[in-house]
Amino acid sequence: MSEHLIFEKTRQGRCAVSLPDVDIREEEIKKFIPVSFLRKKILGLPEVTEPALVRHFTKLSQKNMSVDTNFYPLGSCTMKYNPKVNEALTNLPDFCGLHPYQPSSMIQGILHILYDTCRMLEEISGMDKVSLQPAAGAHGELASMLMLRAYFEEKGEIRDKVLIPDSAHGTNPASSSLAGFKAVKIKSNKEGEIDLDHLHHIMDEKVSCIMLTLPNTLGFFEKKILDITEIIHAKGGLVYLDGANLNALMGITRPGDFGVDIMHFNLHKTFATPHGGGGPGSGPVGVKKFLEPYLPVPLVEKKEDGYCLDCQRPKSIGKVRSFYGNLRVVLKAYCYLRILGKEGIKKVSEDAIISANYIRKKLQDHYPSPYKRICMHECVLSAKDKKEKGIRALDIAKRLLDFGIHPPTMYFPLIVEEALMIEPTETESKETLDAFISALLQIAKEIEEDPTLVKEAPHTTCVLRINEVEANRFPKVRG
Ligand SMILES: *Cc1c(COP(=O)(O)O)cnc(C)c1O
């Protein structure tokens, strides 16, 4: 199973490509490039044949789990299968060949697409205006917090706190602190929802906003959402929605209709861009009318003589990303939305919810979570009762690898002990869900009968159980 480094396969003189001879003499190069920048020694690149090159990288790619190879129920991340047609469309030369410095008159087509994508996101979310600039969800959070700061500064109000539920994603307190706010934790109640009494108690005129995730990271819709938004608004605060879980809401309900003032989208999660390797992503922000002036620039506008990029917005927080944001992620979202249409989008959310509840129902007695209720697009189970057999959520996650399944999210949300957070998404068949359920049932049985099997898993992967701290501090990259 082990694969040597490509440098170790080097044999002098072998080459995977045939390049034309250089037709510029060395003395001439020196005329164009300062000598100090020229390489003194030839770079020690690997010398291998084309088949060796292709086999090397194909083998490496097969050591990884991906949505294209395995079920990937990583909670909160929405690892849905990404239809290849979106890749094909965004790879068209008309898109790839665009240059960001082309004048607007030459790029009316792409501006039209960006404009329409904003309008579709507004329609789905019920917000009044969207900017496509931020490059990821966390970046959208930060941009939004900067907008809120600018808004309250202009109003002359000093509001330095942001309320964040204890079930929230770690980026929420991080973004608010980066923007200069103090994060204040709100408790959850027994139902896994925001504790309204606690919210009443801590809400005051120093709070700029609440950062809500809906459905929350336990997969539950806040049934009291209208009360929550009212409590915040009554004291002059605003409601921010972390839109990472939009895959549960689309076509069913709209944040703008239940009191959200500002939110971000994770196009790479909800709207089908392959992710998980660290990018590129896209985290557009949407706002209600009164926050429009603060949106990051440029915004795509439609004027009588065509589409244009509007940067003349004096109150804007400015640019947060070069050019138009991560254009090709936006393009994929556009294709995905156009292909699915209004009805398709709603079906995505409905199917995601049904899949999560199917899994929850079949597994909740074997991995009991403190909350036994219908969930939305993801469910949180717990391995707490496995501790007496010496087994933790991590061991179960490792054992799942032997079944060819990517582990779910673990130890998040923080308020569930030994959490296993499962988000199957709408793209998996019933057979795949059943295979996952039967793997987890089998693991539960193994924990009873032969816990070492689970404790020492995985047994079939190219890298077995590693010491995670050591692997992190002293990575061993040699095969
Ligand atoms: C993924 C996620 C984020 C952060 O989004 P990125 O695009 O990864 O920066 C924030 N909140 C929740 C709930 C998430 O799942």
Key attributes of the depicted protein:
Aspartate Aminotransferase, domain 1, 2 domains, 15 helices, 7-stranded mixed sheet, 3-stranded antiparallel sheet, Aspartate Aminotransferase, domain 2, 479 residues, 11% strand, binds pyridoxal-5'-phosphate
Give a description of the structure.
By secondary structure, this protein is of the alpha/beta class. It has two domains: 84-340, 3-Layer(aba) Sandwich (Aspartate Aminotransferase, domain 2), CATH 3.40.640.10; 350-473, Aspartate Aminotransferase, domain 1. 37% of the residues lie in helices and 11% in strands. It has helices at 26-32, 50-62, 84-90, 93-96, 108-125, 137-155, 171-178, 196-202, 225-234, 267-270, 327-363, 393-402, 430-449, 451-455, 468-473; strands at 129-131, 161-165, 182-186, 207-213, 238-243, 262-265, 285-287, 299-303, 306-310, 379-382, 409-410, 419-422. The strands form three sheets. It has a seven-stranded mixed beta sheet with strand order 1-7-6-5-4-2-3, sandwiched between helices. Strands 10-12-11 form a three-stranded antiparallel beta sheet, with helices on one face. A two-stranded antiparallel sheet has the order 8-9. Helix 11 packs across helix 13. It binds pyridoxal-5'-phosphate.
